[in-house]
Design brief:
Blueprint (H helix, E strand, L loop, with lengths): L1 H4 L4 H8 L5 H9 L3 E2 H8 L3 H13 L3 E6 L5 E6 L1 H4 L2 H21 L2
Antiparallel strand pairs: 1-3, 2-3
Length: 110
């Protein structure tokens, strides 16, 4: 049923695009500017294989742009596409809610 709703239901569509526990962290890192693969790997503390898989998926879905420079050694940079940049207000809202929830945790788990 989920596949039938992808591209129809906004919640199913967003959930599919953001699948995997790393998608939001990758979008957050790239929202701060263009990054090279190793920089993303270090910043997010993610394995090489997982980052590669996530970036390929997000590129295929139009959220991430991959730029390869004809240099030796080759330089590859990742950035958000215009559609990926449109996710910024969602990231901002997640940050606000996350900070509020952290406060809630501190108040209720003491």
């Amino acid at each position: 049923m989920e596949n039938q709703l992808f591209g129809v239901c906004p919640f199913v569509t967003a959930q599919k695009l953001l699948q995997g526990k790393w998608a939001i962290l990758i979008l957050h890192a790239l929202s701060k500017g263009t990054k090279r693969f190793n920089d993303l790997e270090r910043e997010i503390h993610i394995t090489h294989a997982t980052l590669s898989t996530q970036l390929k998926y997000m590129e295929k879905e139009g959220l991430v742009h991959r730029e390869v420079y004809a240099e030796v050694p080759p330089r590859v940079e990742y950035s958000l596409t215009p559609m990926g940049r449109r996710f910024q207000p969602v990231l901002d809202s997640i940050e606000v809610w996350g900070k509020e929830y952290i406060g809630f945790l501190h108040e209720n788990r003491a």
